[in-house]
Amino acid sequence: MRGDYQQLVDEISAVLAAPATLEDRGFRLIAFGAHEAPEGDDRPGGPVLDPVRTRSILHRRSTTAVRDWFEAFGISRATGPLRIPADPSAGVLIGRICLPVRHRGVVHGYVWLLDDGHLADLETGAGGGPPDPRLAQAMETAGRIGELLAAEARAGAERGELLEDLLTARTAARDAARAGLRSRLGGAADGTLYLAAVVPWDPAGAEGDGGEPVPGLSGLPGALAVRAVPGQGLAVLTCPAPATGAPAQAAVERLLRSPRAAGAAAGVGAPREGLDELERAWWEARAAARAARAEPRLGPVARWEAIGPYRTLAELPPGGAPDAAVAALFRPAHAELARTAEVYLDHAGQAGRAAAALAVHRQTLYYRLSRVERLTGLDLADGEHRLLLHMALKRARL
């Protein structure tokens, strides 16, 4: 599928002799052509590089400000080529022609053509006359892209629904969902799979954020199915990255940049062979995401195998009051003492390293630890007491 998009974008670039970029309707990059200088362009340093296009290629997504700027020209309503002038104040150094990518009246994305000046006389049809035949041919190709994106969106929605049923439904429906997902994934269903969770995920989103409740697969490399599971987060089923064999982490990192993932972290469950243990992988992924939110050094994307003691803590029933021996330490007035005890225990009881991490004098550290002992009744020289306190402090983070 990815190769199909690239081929069609290259067709448009060849017809109009202009670098083309394809983005989905959420302004996520799908494919792009090389930006070469037009024939006879002898400017020092080569062609002018448009920072908006450069950022889109490097970061695989445009900023909200850029999206708002382009949408102000009516690109989401356009049915034909639309010329957009350069505006250096907006970072748009080169003018563009936007080809809306539609299928059955629905916009699925945009093809952007950079105009270094050689497209200035091209008739777009905006004045009532017919568009230039080259633009008409490019719009026909954009229509073929729209068909592909629409088909991918339908397939993605079906896979997402089946994934949600597999993760949350009762046994009978879960078995049917597994069979349906296996049928739609083909050979990938029997290979190595990773399930990731983005927590939290806001399917409603902020007004005007330009995103979709559930992102399309076209902008997420390696993703096989994506679904927002109510009350649990965004589930992302991926295959290994072709080059490294690692989970397709780029897809999850891209999702974390969405406005719908504000304040979120992501977790990846242990790899599974096939679809038979994805329910447990989903639990692991959400636990790893919780650990990444609780302990920023583990994130923003935490793998289940790498969260250490949080694996044990995550198995404990949620909620409940802390152990009576340490309950007093969790009062807001004692937050500094709790932090001191946690850092001290994180550094294996080595006072010098703990004091340095807290940026306090060693005597200050000893004074605080003595207060912790008086408050809890625990003896920090006793291994079991230290274990109880450390586990309680870490569990509180979850």
TrEMBL record:
InterPro entries: CdaR-like_regulators, PucR_C-HTH_dom, PucR_C-HTH_sf. It comes from the Bacteria. PANTHER family: CARBOHYDRATE DIACID REGULATOR, CONSERVED PROTEIN. This is PucR family transcriptional regulator. Gene3D superfamilies: PucR C-terminal helix-turn-helix domain (1.10.10.2840). It comes from Streptomyces zingiberis. The lineage of its organism: Bacteria, Bacillati, Actinomycetota, Actinomycetes, Kitasatosporales. Residues 337-394 form the PucR C-terminal helix-turn-helix domain.
